[in-house]
Amino acid sequence: MKTINIGILGYGVVGTGVAKLIKEKKKLLESRIGAYLNLKYIADIDTTTDRGLDIGDTILIADAKKVFSDPDIHIIVETIGGKTIAKDFILKALENGKHVVTANKALLADFGNELVKTARHNQVDLAFEASCGGCMPIIKSLRESLVANDIKSMSAILNGTCNFILTKISKDGSQFDDALKTAQELGYAEAEPSLDIDGHDTAHKLAILNSLAHGMEINLEDIHVEGIRNITPVDIEFARTFGYTIKLLAISKIHDDHVEARVHPTMIPKSNPLSHIDKSMNAVAIDADATGQTMLYGHGAGMMPTASAVLSDLADIARNIISQTKRRVPILGYPEDNIKKIPILSMKELYTRYYLRFDAKDHPGVLAKISGILGENNISIKSVHQKGRNSSGKVPVVMITHVAKEEWVQKALNEISTGKSILDRPVVIRIEETNQE
Amino acid sequence: MKTINIGILGYGVVGTGVAKLIKEKKKLLESRIGAYLNLKYIADIDTTTDRGLDIGDTILIADAKKVFSDPDIHIIVETIGGKTIAKDFILKALENGKHVVTANKALLADFGNELVKTARHNQVDLAFEASCGGCMPIIKSLRESLVANDIKSMSAILNGTCNFILTKISKDGSQFDDALKTAQELGYAEAEPSLDIDGHDTAHKLAILNSLAHGMEINLEDIHVEGIRNITPVDIEFARTFGYTIKLLAISKIHDDHVEARVHPTMIPKSNPLSHIDKSMNAVAIDADATGQTMLYGHGAGMMPTASAVLSDLADIARNIISQTKRRVPILGYPEDNIKKIPILSMKELYTRYYLRFDAKDHPGVLAKISGILGENNISIKSVHQKGRNSSGKVPVVMITHVAKEEWVQKALNEISTGKSILDRPVVIRIEETNQE
Predict the structure, then answer these.
(1) Is the ipTM of this structure higher than 0.90?
(2) B21 contacts on A by Cβ (under 8 Å)
(3) Whether residues B281 and B181 fall in one domain
(4) Is the pLDDT of residue B391 over 80?
(5) For the segment B418-431, what is each residue's pLDDT rounded down to a tens digit?
(6) Could you tell me if B25 and B66 lie in one domain?
(7) Which CA distances in Å does A223 have to A204, A206, A334?
(8) Could you tell me if residue A436 is inside a domain?
């Protein structure tokens, strides 16, 4: 049997998980792949902390260069994270003719096109199943399974921290800050949580999936991103009244000459399978023209689910090596020459439905004022819900609109906000109506 | 660009779908795969019926031999169905050195081991993504994505007809016969529906998935199979009272030296994601040691979803041909020499929980009699629900047991059934408690 030599850069949570699987699943992997996966090196600046794994004395080293320069190494696994040394090391590994496996969505979202180009130039593979949706085979599905489909739309829950917090607010009526604190105590959220809760992590993943779904260059910067900091139990309760659940969704929809790509809290009806995805679980729903609606569901993060995805990439590359082939499936699902630039729709051009909540003074004529301004801006109201005055003397007025243009809605809200009868900036949550089979 | 020549055997629904995708997605497929997929022949005894597809004059022929003997043909797609000529043609195609793609689960479940052996002997690929779960990439996930996982258990809704009927009974309170009639009128059930509603189709798929999940020979005959003919609105209503939904599940669980593999109506709690899979949709939930709980969801049948899965196999094989490799991933996920025989647990050895419904005469002491016999057989009761006498003077007594052995339960029910106070054969529905994340 052939031996495939592997080097891991970064011995943190994911790196440890990968080493653990290579070690503990040695027999299974050999039995399935028909080759030895030999972990030759792990490079990390910290060579002393005990990760609870017996990998032998000679494997853990501080010098990453020794790993990506070693002529025996076939595959480099990058689990350092971040966009500085990780990028530098990956580029060097690719230039040295190593295949690279990474879970680094932030790096791919920002510099993926450059990495793909470098991999092409050096005729090696770059694999990243673990970058989106953790253990779910979403990258493989888009690259290989849905190959005869035009992907009409994707909507996805791609951040476990946000989903945990939204579930917590929804089930317990917690305030956002308390739900975040619980998430931090349970290890679902970082001490510095903004990458997750402000939607950026979800946007990184959407940039990658968007590229694979539509055969386009990775484009993070044009994706509109909103996080979940402003979601309150009040809005979740109103959502329930109207039959909706609030989720932080990554949304991608293809149109004739552009694509929608946006991340924001979204109201979805109970008939949408994503509405049942709770706690820290992730899911990607895809509507493609041949398959119709499909969904993948699983743990989007965590040591072992992420390591499982890395191992599927390692197995794929190992099978290529045994079969004496490489770059069998193009990195972005389309050969590089066929990758297009598809513009992302400017947010103000978006047409969708809206949930609007106004905290109004309980004056006669307030409702007429609001509806009037909305009407003048072409926004028609599907339903209105006005609750009794609350303790602070404010009256929450909630409206669900028919499909309207984002630009009109923002203009109308600006006009309404300047009025004396409205106390706070109105709450705006977009609604996705989805047709389940 | 290289041209990959394809022949389709069988121009029925799936064959038409495959031809349609090859034709209509020509540009997309070429752009993704970097090769031409050329549909050279379709063989069908009926060469006159209009399938609504313009494939040109020379492609449709009656002589299948011409297709699988043509030296130019790289891949044969078998969409005839059944186990007679389909088997014969596939064997001949394999022997002629053609790669074969099939959606034929009945054939694979019964003769898969022989087909795998023949493919190996002739060093060609045999692919069958469309055989289980329609468009869902379940075969690919088991063979490639979950490669570093031991699959602890799978539970799956694999038959759209059954799921449609159970959803109909559940939502409308229909009787089974009426729900079946509706399913037939809407095209979800065949005129002769027994393959679906008696659970055999689900068992065929389970035999295939079981093999892939555990690296074992395909074994259909030891799978216990029960269908849904006896499911009544009464039991669905009781299930709801206890917080359960009834689904026809395929269940596979690995143990030290054997595997459970069974198909039967099953009560599952609302926390199980499968409980939300309604109408004709399919889903496969997998609990693996590294990933934890995952699920795939999608259309399990239908022309285009099935054709989409066939095309993913075609693309895989085409990419192999372009990369000048073959048999890159073993047919059953493990190289043939590593495939084991793992015995399937005899049903009487099963330990699980049970829902039992007795239609008893309203005599004093009936409940004591039933509980007594259950107790003597080691079966302890978790909860009892006794409704008021119904119009026929019968009293439904419903019990949920703790975990008990199937053998004990069957023995106890035989004893109870012989008693004069019980009117009908008791209803037995097994319960799966699942731990979601």
Answers:
(1) yes
(2) 148, 290
(3) yes
(4) no
(5) 877 777 789 999 99
(6) yes
(7) 9, 8, 22
(8) no
* Domain co-membership, B210 together with B290: yes
Provide the annotated active-site residues of B.
205
Q: Do A305 and B291 touch (CB under 8 A)?
A: yes
**Please, what is the average pLDDT of chain A?**
95
Instruction: Kindly give, in sequence order, each residue whose CB lies less than 8 Å from that of residue A186, ignoring residues fewer than 6 positions away.
Output: A164
The pLDDT of residue B389: 67
Of B376, B381, B341, B360, whose CA–CA distance to B426 is shortest? B360
Q: CB under 8 Å to B258, separation ≥6 — which residues?
A: B342, B343, B344, B345
Residue burial A119-150, b: 16+ Cβ < 10 Å; e: rest: bbebebbbbbbbbbbbbbbbbbbbbbbbbbbe
The CA distance from B298 to the nearest CA of chain A, in Å, is: 4
For residues A156 and A295, membership in a common domain is answered with yes
Within 10 Å of residue B21's Cβ, how many Cβ atoms? 26
pLDDT for residue B437:
35
CA distance A212 to chain B (A): 11
List the CATH number of the domain containing A85: 3.40.50.720
Give the mean pLDDT of A322-333: 96
> Do the Cβ atoms of A312 and B145 come within 8 Å?
yes
> Do both B218 and B236 map to the same domain?
yes
Q: Does B144 fall in a domain?
A: no
**Domain assignment present for B164:** yes
CATH number at residue B187: 3.30.360.10
CB atoms within 10 A of CB B419: 14
CA angle, B195 then B158 then B407, to 5°:
75
Contact between A328 and B324 using a beta-carbon 8 Å cutoff: no
Helix (H, G, I), strand (E, B) or coil at B294: strand
The number of distinct structural domains making up chain B is 3
> Number of CB pairs < 8 Å for A and B?
206
- The domain that holds B416 is classified in CATH as 3.30.70.260
User: Higher confidence at residue B359 or residue A255?
Assistant: A255
Is the domain of B268 the same as that of B207? yes
- The candidate with the shortest Cα–Cα distance to A307, out of A52, A20, A18, A6, is A18
Structural domain boundaries enclosing B293: 150-298
Q: What is the DSSP letter of B267?
A: E
Report residue A140 as tokens.
């493989």
Instruction: Answer whether residue A390 shows pLDDT above 70.
Output: no
Domain for residue B181, yes or no? yes
Q: What is the pLDDT of residues A357-380, one digit of tens each?
A: 998 887 778 889 999 999 999 999
Which residue of chain A has the CA closest to B144?
A312
Co-location of B324 and B351 in the same domain? no
Q: Are residues A85 and A154 in the same domain?
A: no
